[in-house]
Design brief:
heterodimer; A: about 140 residues; alpha/beta; B: alpha+beta; 24 helices; about 45% helix
Chain lengths: ~140, ~800
């Protein structure tokens, strides 16, 4: 059990901005970054052959529009897996489409945050996310613990 | 004594005269005995059978009163022989003399009914004598002495007895005389009766009414009258000759009955009546009624009475014939009346002889009005002149045939109107000569039906659709020109063949199913493909209906086929266009999505990093550099706003419309509250009418109000007493919702630009905005089929209207 945040983001600018937004919000947790859905699944569930070696992150920030495996597919697979079905996943995306929102929540997303263009708003969003998911929220007992 | 002798001689004389009148003799004797022997004398005769003393007789008393009383007593009733003194004397024939009688004792001993009389009489002596004639008591004489004591002596008795002999003789003679005369009368009567019977018989015998035959049972004729000879046609000599066999006159079939009659005659003497026939001399038969009886109790002679029935039989036959004729006539009448058509029978002169009820119905004349009239009365005037010629030609060569074949025939009613008819003629050979029976059928309805059929046929012939009739088994029975054009088969080629000819092989199962369903009465309507004669396929729209007979049974199938090649082509083009539009729409969606995600990401970078420079590296930039960084931040943010507005506009266009009743008033208040919350320092009065409702998609309705009220909110920002109002007016008969404000307003010259995207009438610096809001409003309203417009003037505020199709909006009462 770490306080690591896993950021699933293919856009490098967004990755930097996201990390900066967390840092400016004084959230110093380690932020692990993966670039697409496949990497995210490998990070969280391990490869088909091997076992997961590292601990699950405290929070997953999941973009939807991802190369190889889409964000929604990642979420579906995580919720289907006994180990990750209760893992906090916040969808962090540019889309404000109703369809994405509905699909996201239907598949078991814990929150849905739209990335604002205005950086100051993004910083505020990151701060709120961090506060809530990393400090205030009581996590369910993890199967591993 | 002298007196008595004188009386005797007188009596004797009187007797001689008294033979014819015994009563007078008895009266004389009674008077003489009464006078000479005294006092009462009663003489009564005994009936022929000797059983009674008759109540009549003779009596005498010198006192008329007593005489009358005596007669009364006598007449009160006859006296039985053997009873009383007189009865005893009558029974025995011995006289009784009672010389002395005590009158009182006599009264007491007598019957009560005689007592008063006897008291008055005062009998003192009595004698009673029989009147004997040929040894037979024919009467009794009573003598009584009354009121004086002078008993009868035997001398008195002798005297009376001698007179009584005379009286008896007189009675006897009178009786003999009467008997003889009665016998003579009877004989005379009998001979008279016989003579009368003979006369009657002779009258009958010669009357010529009945035949009379006297013959032996064996058949030998003894006597025969002229009448019977006339019946059988033989002469008397022939019949009476020895060799004549009477039996041979009876035809063999009647002989068993004759033999039975002979048996009855022998048994009972009477043969009864029977009908039979005689064979006349000329061989013909004579129907007769015969009654026979034995002429005598013994012997073999019979008498027969023969009635000639020839005339009667002829009459009966005639009556029978008449009845049959009448029945036949009635039958003919009934036949005539039962005919569904008008029937008129005319004679050779063309005069109407007989008509039936249908004639009356069709022509309006009664039978009486027509009988005897020329048949031409039923023909329109313009044809009358020529008709007798046709009529005579028909009588010249009569036969059963329709009249005026291929001609239009018309009947003329009594009221002058005409109607089309069909006439068939047939000759009728009758006793009254040749008649012609014409059967007249009113074909008005048939003509109309023919016309209707012709009209329908013309429609079918000229129809652009192929119209085909077929049997339940699918055999083509009718094929119109359009069917020829559509399928390439001529009517001659395909009629009588199966409709399967035009069905592509892969659709044969469909054909079978359709025939079954339509055969069961269902109308089928569907689009399919059929095969032309040249093998090419054609798209057709088929309507296949059952054809029913008058009873409602499906007897055939009608099929209307429309060439829908063009329509199918148009449909295919439409489908292609739709596919293209859908593809474009999908592209637009993909574009929108990428706009949302991919175009925003660089903006976020630009804004984010510019902001980071301003935050972390402000000291490295002078005022102008910092201002430019601010511009980057501002422009990136503005572009984000534009993208969001574009996305929302496209969402308005793309989203599915879901209409429901929306409470616009409540929704507007909520929007107003939200707007007020964005700038708590502003004062604005919201006037929102209650109970505004419309049928709208709730999401779009909200976007609509957000844009309109948001606009008003934005453009009243600089108004000191801002007022925003939502209400409803009526424009062109439909409710028009309005959002009015007292803000910046606009120049009506630019009103047309208001609703175009990215068109702005104010600078961003005056009033910020994307230029998408009113375009969104217009899309929302037009998607609901409504209309949006605006009124306003610069600095005088603006009023935006939107109306929706009727029945979908308004203020609820």
């Amino acid at each position: 059990m770490t306080k690591t945040i896993l950021l699933v983001e293919d856009n490098m600018s967004d990755e930097k901005l996201t990390v900066l937004a967390f840092r400016q919000s004084k959230i110093e947790n380690e932020i692990a970054v993966v670039r697409d859905g496949a990497e995210a699944l490998e990070y969280l569930l391990g490869t088909a052959s091997g076992q997961v070696t590292r601990d699950l992150p405290a929070l997953v920030l999941l973009d939807l529009n991802l190369p190889r495996v889409s964000g929604l597919e990642v979420l579906r697979r995580l919720r289907a897996d006994e180990r990750t079905k209760l893992l906090p996943v916040v969808i962090l995306t540019a889309s404000k489409e109703d369809e994405d929102l509905i699909n996201g929540y239907s598949l078991g997303a814990n929150a849905y945050v739209r990335k604002p263009v205005e950086f100051l708003q993004f910083v505020e969003a990151a701060r709120t996310l961090g506060l809530f998911w990393l400090l205030l929220n009581e996590r369910p007992p993890t199967p591993n613990s | 004594l002298e007196e008595r002798l004188r009386v005797l001689s007188e009596a004797t004389r009187a007797f001689a005269e008294a033979t014819r009148d015994p009563q007078a003799l008895l009266d004389v004797i009674a008077r003489r005995l009464g006078e000479l022997v005294g006092d009462l004398c009663v003489i009564r005769a005994v009936t022929e059978d000797g059983a009674w003393l008759e109540s009549t007789g003779a009596a005498y008393h010198r006192n008329p009163e007593l005489l009358e009383a005596t007669r009364q007593l006598m007449m009160s009733g006859r006296q039985r022989v053997g009873e009383g003194i007189s009865g005893r004397v009558a029974a025995t024939g011995q006289a009784i003399l009672t010389p002395r009688i005590s009158p009182a004792a006599f009264v007491a001993s007598s019957e009560p009914k005689y007592r008063p009389f006897l008291e008055q009489l005062g009998v003192t002596s009595s004698m009673t004598l029989p009147l004997l004639c040929a040894g037979k008591v024919v009467g009794v004489a009573n003598l009584m002495r009354c009121g004086r004591d002078e008993p009868y002596s035997s001398a008195d008795l002798d005297f009376v007895a001698s007179l009584a002999e005379h009286a008896a003789l007189a009675i006897g003679n009178a009786r003999s005389y009467a008997a003889e005369r009665a016998a003579r009368n009877a004989a005379e009567k009998a001979s008279l009766a016989l003579r009368e019977a003979e006369i009657r018989f002779a009258r009958l015998y010669e009357s010529g009414i009945v035949g009379i035959l006297v013959a032996h049972l064996g058949g030998r004729v003894v006597e025969i009258n002229d009448t019977l000879l006339g019946i059988i046609g033989y002469a008397r000599e022939e019949v009476l000759s020895d060799g004549f066999a009477w039996v041979a006159l009876t035809p063999p079939e009647y002989r068993p009955a004759d033999r039975r009659t002979v048996e009855r005659l022998s048994e009972s003497g009477v043969g009864g009546l029977r009908e039979k026939e005689y064979i006349r001399k000329d061989g013909t038969r004579a129907p007769v009624l015969v009654g026979s009886a034995m002429l005598q109790d013994e012997g073999t002679l019979t008498i027969s009475v023969v009635l000639d029935l020839t005339e009667r039989k002829a009459t009966l036959a005639l009556v029978d014939q008449l009845q049959r004729d009448r029945a036949a006539d009635a039958k003919f009448r009934a036949l005539l009346e039962s005919a569904p058509d008008a029937m008129v029978i005319v004679d050779a002169e063309g005069a109407i002889v007989l008509t039936n009820g249908q004639v009356e119905t069709q022509f309006g004349y009664t039978a009486a009005e027509l009988t005897g009239q020329p048949i031409e009365i039923l023909i329109p005037e313009r044809f009358r002149a020529a008709h007798p010629g046709h009529r005579n030609a028909y009588f010249g060569s009569p036969g059963i045939r329709p009249m005026g074949a291929r001609l239009e025939l018309y009947g003329r009613r009594k009221n002058g109107s005409e109607f089309p008819i069909e006439v068939s003629l047939s000759p009728l050979q009758t006793e009254d000569g040749l008649l012609v029976s014409s059967t007249i059928r009113d074909i008005t309805e048939r003509k109309q039906a023919d016309q209707q059929r012709a009209n329908l046929a013309a429609i079918v012939e000229s129809s652009d659709d192929a119209i085909i009739a077929k049997t339940l088994a699918g055999v083509v029975s009718s094929w119109n020109p359009s069917a020829e054009r559509l399928f390439g088969y001529s009517a001659a080629e395909i009629i009588g063949k199966s409709i399967a000819l035009i069905v592509p092989p892969d659709r044969e199962a469909q054909l079978t199913a359709t025939l079954t369903q339509v055969g069961a009465g269902a109308v089928q309507h569907f689009d399919t493909v059929r095969r032309r004669k040249d093998g090419s396929l054609v798209d057709v729209s088929l309507t296949i209906s059952p054809v029913r007979d008058a009873a409602g049974h499906v007897v055939g199938i009608s099929k209307v086929a429309r060439d829908i090649t063009e329509r199918k082509r148009a449909e295919r083009e439409l489908a292609r266009a739709k596919d293209a539009a859908e593809a474009a729409s999908r592209e637009l969606e993909a574009f929108s999505y990428s706009v949302a995600h991919d175009l925003r990401a660089p903006l976020r970078g630009m804004n984010g990093f510019a902001r980071l420079l301003l935050d972390g590296y402000a000291d490295k930039f002078d005022a102008e550099g910092q201002d430019w960084l601010q511009e980057i931040v501002f422009n990136a943010k503005k572009m984000g706003g534009l993208i969001d507005a574009l996305l929302s506009l496209s969402r308005v266009t793309r989203s599915e419309l879901r209409r429901e009743v929306v409470d616009l008033s409540a929704m507007a208040r909520k929007v107003a509250t939200d707007l007020s919350a964005t700038e708590p320092g502003r004062s604005c009065s919201w006037i929102i009418q209650d109970s505004l409702q419309a049928q709208l998609d709730p999401n779009l309705a909200r976007a609509l109000l957000e844009n309109l009220l948001g606009n008003a909110w934005k453009f009243t920002a600089k108004s000191p007493a801002a007022c925003i109002e939502l209400g409803v007016d009526e424009r062109d008969g439909v409710p028009a919702f309005r959002v009015r404000d007292n803000g910046a307003g606009f120049d009506m010259a630019f009103a047309s630009k208001l609703f175009a995207p990215f068109q702005r009438l104010h600078t961003t610096h005056e009033f910020p905005g994307t230029g998408i809001g009113l375009a969104t409003v217009q899309r929302i309203v037009s998607r609901h089929g409504g209309r949006v417009w605006a009124e306003g003037a610069v600095n005088m505020g603006a009023c935006f209207f939107f109306s929706l199709p009727s029945q979908t909006s308004g203020a609820s009462a």
